Amino acid sequence: MNDMKKKATNIDKNDVLISVKGLEKSFGENHVLRGVDLDIYQGENLAVLGRSGTGKSVLIKIIAGLLTPDSGIVSVLGKQVNLLDNKELQALRLKLGFSFQNSALYDSMTVKENLEFPLLRNSKKMTQAQLTHAVETVLDAVGLLRTIHQLPSELSGGQRKRIGIARTLIMRPTIMLYDEPTAGLDPITCIEINSLINEVQERYNTTSVIITHDLTCAKSTGDRVAILLDGRFLRTGSFEEVFDTEDERIQSFYDYNFIA
User: Fold this and answer.
1) In the 8-state DSSP scheme, what is residue 182?
2) What's the CA gap between 93 and 95, in Å, rounded?
3) What digits encode the pLDDT tens for the residues 72-116?
4) Where do the H-state alpha helices sit in the chain?
5) Which of 36, 61, 162, 181 gives 67 a disulfide partner, CB atoms 3.0 to 4.6 angstroms apart?
6) Domain span at 146
7) What pairs with residue 196 in β-bridges?
8) Which of 61, 171, 173 is nearest to 117 (CA)?
9) Which region holds residue 80: left if phi is over 0, alpha if psi is between -120 and 50, else beta?
């Protein structure tokens, strides 16, 4: 696994872009998050590991203001998310790129139309030439310029995932939120998506939260890894630091991923 280790990147630990303090969230009797604390720094890729149902996706939905916490403080780019009104929240979301697990593309639109949509929806006054240039730039960044006139149904799962990432990049976000970016993909395509996440970090100077249950994804993309268990972060650090433990709960998660 050594060849999958994340290369060092420039991280500014004096600049906290996302701060989570005492975060709690329940759905009825299901206590999903039980006091989560975390700071995420400028230029950092943070991989949040955990099995299905542990609250990983709930965490980034709260960061994006899609869910409201029961208690605790979540600040993004200096703004306490749950205190923002609708206009302020919309302005913040324009600085967040949310890459959904299912890519969330419109089936009736071509790739070009899918990528133009967020620019048009957010009242960007751009000529058709400017729109086309923006689309071609992000498609080139994800290596899929040739698909510009295709429909999502004509693309592979990996290609749709790349187009979904391109659609978030077209708004030039400060923060990228990836929800299970390698879910349902074959091993070779997973490697390609992991590499793309790192390329996006380097090329666009993004700060990213990568939600995953895939250890290979976490090791390949995470400057830091946090493992979520029983509603709290059990360990946080480099991949090696997190898994250098005798804690059976963490070892069982490792074995669950790499079982022979």
Assistant:
1) T
2) 5
3) 999 999 999 999 999 999 999 999 999 877 778 999 999 999 999
4) 56-63, 86-93, 111-121, 128-141, 157-169, 187-204, 215-221, 239-243, 248-257
5) 61
6) 96-172
7) none
8) 171
9) beta
Hey, which residues does 71 pair with through a beta bridge? 24
Of 82, 22, 25, the closest CA to residue 56 belongs to 25
Token pair for 166: 């391109």
Report the sign of the C-alpha dihedral through residues 5, 8, 12, 13, in that order.
positive
Q: Which residues pair with 25 in a beta bridge?
A: 33
Among residues 212, 224, 130, which one has the least CA distance to residue 170? 130
The tally of domains found in the chain comes to: 1
Helix (H) or strand (E) holding 46: strand 45-49
- CA separation for the pair 217, 47 (Å, rounded): 8
- The closest of 251, 222, 250 to 48, measured between CA atoms, is 222
Residue 110 forms part of a structural domain: yes
Residue-wise pLDDT for 226-249, tens only, equals 999 889 999 999 999 999 998 888
Say if 238 falls within a structural domain: no
